[in-house]
Amino acid sequence: MTLMTDPLLITVAPTGAETAKQDCPQLPTTPEELAKTAQDCERAGASMIHIHVRDHDHQPTLDVVLLKEWVAAVRESSDLVVQLSTGGSVHDPLEQRLQVLDAEPDACSLTMGTTNFGDDVFSNPWPFVCELYQLSQERGVVPEFELFDLGQVHAMRRLLDRYGLPAGGKVHVDLVMGVPGGMNGTTDALVAAVRDLPVETTSWSATGIGRSTLSVILASLSKGGHLRVGMEDVLTLSRGVPVESNAQLVERAVAIGALAQRHPMKPAEARTLLGLTG
Ligand code: KMH
Ligand code: ZN
Question: Is the CB of 212 under 6 A from ligand 1?
């Protein structure tokens, strides 16, 4: 049980796979821009970064050479825990999504089931989830269980029963809320998901997509959870006011956390929380 005074894990998700560079020039889509983002966000209070990589044309890619380059860029510029997305974009083949672990991140996202994703489908068939989970265990990569829907809470129970604890022995969850097709970005949905999390869960965070971002931040803090923020999830600060940088979203999360007497943890504390110190 997290206390209201416990340090706050802030994960920044700076890029995502859905927004085009030409629509949002401030989106970090090169290793240099990501390195600067990592530095600024760490200074602002983030301790983990969730990375989607872009190619030289700013398009989403899972090319392992580029993934390694981006991982190195973050490690050179910051101490942030490096979490690579295995979700990629809705168009990425499952085989390539497994190869993300070849880039040797500290952590990886692991979505617990298939979700309608706007007009698309974010595909995570059960055999793929099992394969990716076992691969993360073999490689010593710490998974973040990403839950887009309440059914995925139960899928996580099933996965832990079948394959045991993740690498590092800690169980960290991120509730991704407000995706059109997934669970609603509301306090009620958050409470329902948290109530049913497996007892093995050692930490959880939440992020609300788009206009649900603030209500999910407030709900998570009031339930003792952690936060994920970033331009993968939201591009406006309020109606019609564009986000200028990822650090701005981290700063806002820090300020809201401070009202709840939750102060941002350092990357070293995040490593302990996530089981990355062994
Ligand atoms: N881009 C979404 C289709 C993840 O990073 O693992 C999937 C996603 C989840 O963002
Ligand atoms: Zn992502």
Answer: no
Residue 17 main-chain phi, psi, to 5 deg = -120, 0
- Residues by chain with Cβ below 5 Å of ion ligand 2: 85
Q: Is the predicted pLDDT of residue 1 greater than 70, yes or no?
A: no
Residues composing the chain: 278
Nearest CA-CA partner of 12 in 172, 162, 164, 233: 233
Pick the atom of ligand 1 nearest to 50's CA.
5
Whole-structure pTM value: 0.98
pLDDT for the residue 278: 73
Nearest-CA residue for atom 6 of ligand 1 = 87
Alpha carbon distance 112, 128 (integer Å)? 10
Query: What amino acid is encoded at 164 in this protein?
Result: G
Report helix, strand and coil shares of the chain as percent, to nearest 5.
40, 20, 40
Q: Is the CB of 87 under 6 A from ligand 1?
A: yes
25-61 pLDDT, tens digit each? 999 999 999 999 999 999 999 999 999 999 999 999 9
Angle among Cα 71, 251, 34 to the nearest 5 degrees reads: 20
- Which sign, positive or negative, has the C-alpha torsion 268, 226, 159, 184? negative
122 CA closest ligand 1 atom index: 3
Ligand 1 atom nearest the C-alpha of 90 is 3
Give me 128's structure tokens.
């793929």
